[in-house]
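Sample A.
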Amino acid sequence: MALRGERVAELRKELGMNQKQLAEILGVAHNTLSQWESNSKDPSTAMLKRLCEILGCTSDYLIGLVDI
């Protein structure tokens, strides 16, 4: 199932972070996060879990299974 990159971007912005800041927290390159947010690449399962922890959401939300 593909990541909904716009949801990552939305939650990141709600937390007041730019892409560079979130990428540093995750330990990935800025362009990697950019690719996730533009839906050109998907994160690994482990990285999806980290994204959820940091962004305060579920994986179901980030992959579009639920809307809340």
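Sample B.
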Amino acid sequence: MEKGVNEKDWKLFRSRLPGWQETYMERIVEEYMELLGSEDQASEKFWALDERIKKDKRNPGVLLHDVKRSNMDIHLLQLLRYKVIRLENLDGFSEELQEKLTWIIGNE
């Protein structure tokens, strides 16, 4: 990834990231509620939820480490790969950035 990050893209990323993460966490909380509402034994639900939360804590939809301008492209790729956002969520970002990320995701 190149180092020169478009100022508009950086500002847009910083403004959208909290909303993307909140939306993602709402989605996983719904999944937790489904798990807890199952007819499994309480102990099974507890340990399944514990394991799921441990896994989800490492997801960029919950927490991104080292959010810097120079890592923005990588963060966007992580969010796309973990399905926190979709390519449609990149509307408003520069065409160059959108094309680059679309190409990378399409070639994985």
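B remarks: The mean pLDDT is 93. The longest helix spans residues 7-36.
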